[in-house]
Amino acid sequence: MRVTRSIDTSSLIPASGRLQDFAATLADFISADPDLQAFQYELKLESSRRPELRRHIDMLHDAYRDAVREASACFDVPQNMTEIVFAALEGLLFHQVTSDEPARTREGIDALRRLLTAYRTQASPGAQAGTSHQPEDSCTHLGSDPDKLPRRA
Fold this sequence. Notes:
Blueprint: H1 2-9, H2 26-32, H3 34-49, H4 54-74, H5 82-99, H6 102-123
Helix pairs in contact: 2-6, 3-5, 4-5, 5-6
């Protein structure tokens, strides 16, 4: 099924494990198969007219939200940011599918990374107390065994 294939081949956690590389391959992923991405939007629109399709869209979005939650945990980004990050990524994806502007997607991803870094730093314990504690810069703090790290691109 096309929806499953999209989820299986898209990962938000880079091989480097660094927030600075978060979603770095998204624009290329979209460019590689824009028809698959367009199909998902068409399915979403059709589900508003055909409620029997709604559960498929809900499952798709739940899987993508899980991927965003996984990446958020990896990068010490609070889970309450999941919906905002999901919406930002979905908007960037939709724009690229409809306008074929991968450079704009890359710029949006860069801006999202900067926002996440700033939010994470501001929200980290000790940030307001004036200590030097900074959140981890990568997923490597989760352990050194690659099999125990979240899925990577």
